[in-house]
Design a protein that fits this description.
single chain, about 130 residues, flat, Sf6_terminase, Transposase
């Protein structure tokens, strides 16, 4: 037991479902009968045997990935419904940033590395390379 709340599968499922729906861990843990967010982090890091045996670290990771999908869905809703463009831009940017950090392969910035040019060796360097 950590933080006064004992780990249960039902509690873990509730926490992960709400995270996947887009709620923050802070919002979830502020409610009565919920563990402190530090306790949830301990469970997610495998610091307690019950949480680890139940697979909570994987459940939590998947919930965070699903949360990124929820944030991506919210972007379109915000763009279509928010009257103030500045407010919409801030809300959209925050969700895009969070989604990109949680699922960088899906929502992260695509970085294309391209190399052009060649490598030039002097005659002496080429001879040294052959000797090595």
């Amino acid at each position: 037991m950590a933080g006064g709340i004992t780990y249960t599968h039902e509690l873990a499922t509730t926490i992960c479902r709400e995270i996947a729906e887009g709620k923050s861990l802070r919002q979830i843990c502020r409610r009565k009968n919920m563990p402190h967010k530090g306790t949830v982090f301990e469970w997610a890091c495998g610091a307690t045997e019950a949480a680890t045996e139940d697979g909570f670290p994987d459940m939590y990771r998947r919930a965070r990935e699903c949360q990124a999908d929820s944030f991506a869905d919210e972007v379109v809703k915000i763009a279509d419904s928010t009257k103030d463009p500045q407010k919409a831009r801030v809300q959209i940017d925050a969700r895009k940033w969070a989604a990109g950090k949680q699922r960088p392969k899906v929502y992260g910035d695509k970085i294309n590395h391209e190399h052009s040019g060649g490598i030039t060796l002097t005659h002496e360097q080429a001879l040294e390379a052959l000797d090595d």
